[in-house]
């Protein structure tokens, strides 16, 4: 299987080359060989197929995985009597004098369901709901190159592309509302400030109080602030560095934080739009920035994650609390694209591997959530909406793209969503409609709106909802990966063993 792994690695590199801002002649030649390599890989997998292969896991690897599953199953079975005894003891301790008497003269109080039982019931209900979900897909035509970023504001979606444009779309009608042209380089990132901060800026520029703004960053070293109602660029900030990521931090008067392709973080005051701090934070491009309350999280191409405290009471608003390198996160490598999504003490990471990494940013403890059943998967996006963790997955062998849903806070697998010819998903935005239905937008080679249909809708949706039996269990495990991800298929165990207690977090959970 050595040649199979080499071909998988080459295909992974080619897929990542295709989403770069620009390609050299040598890189273009490599990309042109993708079809040939994929055909050769399919032939090899066919030759190795048979009773000893299960979805790319063959021979000793299959036996090892079976033994692991059997061992964990035996452990779970062995634990059941102890759990049963513990529950009975807990119920016995809940009895008090003066309660109602049963037919045998014993006194009891009604026993409320335990927190564990309530969580299980909630999970089962959520799983059943998503198994019946229907979506309609609509493609938004307009960009001429890869869509790199997208955000949602009310019924609008704003997308940025390598074609240097920012476009505003009216989702209910799936039409382009505005084309915001002004950048001279590819657009790499977008951010939408909260409404109250938009009101403050609107007063500065003497605009309507209800005006909404969006920020865009580009390889042309500029951050532009756009008024959505008119499409006017009200301010352009020159950063002296190609902007690879940005984030609005609603702390105090508010700050814009930008990350550069050289690893620098820069902080800009929202009230004055002046630079108030520059920090050489990373050794490589800052590929992701996310805020959570008074905290800012930054991630870079080399696989490093930094946690910062943001305060408007200091001359320099950012103060670094923690830094975890690639030896801890398990990220970095050929793909060079790390995306993060924080939740309390945990940070969910996607970095082009088949799993979603979960970092406890206080302790540096890493766990791993399987997002693909073999090492041929690429996780590009990780995001959260209330009650859900969402991970995109792209199979480098067959070109199939999938969205996997996990229930929060347990990180238990719910369902997988896919559609025919769904392209690789490089960015994701989500929100709820007034009726409580989901609307999502995914970007990559195409910009696609996912609109959840009501349960009473009779026709079949455009999305296939399925459950992957290989992701059935809560697949959290200690993370010590080899270079080629040979151990990517994880050992099933209960998520509750690795879940952080709610009381351990001093920060209330903010979902981005």
Helix content: 10-25%
Our Rg estimate from Cα atoms comes to: 25 Å
Number of helices: 7
Largest sheet: 6 strands, antiparallel
Strand fraction equals 35-45%
Low-pLDDT runs of 5+ residues are 51-108, 479-512
User: Averaged pLDDT, please?
Assistant: 81
Please give the alpha-carbon distance between the first and last residues.
41 Å
Shape field: globular
SS-derived structural category: alpha+beta
Pfam families: WD40
Biased composition (Polar residues): 501-512
Protein name: Vegetative incompatibility protein HET-E-1-like
Region (Disordered): 88-125, 477-512
Explain what this protein looks like in three dimensions.
- Strands 26, 27, 28, 29, 30 and 34 form a six-stranded antiparallel sheet that branches.
- A hairpin with a 5-residue loop joins β28 and β29.
- By secondary structure, this protein is an alpha+beta fold.
- The radius of gyration is 25 Å and the shape is globular.
- The protein has a domain of 46 residues.
- It has seven helices and 35 strands.
- The relative contact order is 0.11.
- Keywords: Repeat, WD repeat.
- Pfam families: WD40.
- This is Vegetative incompatibility protein HET-E-1-like.
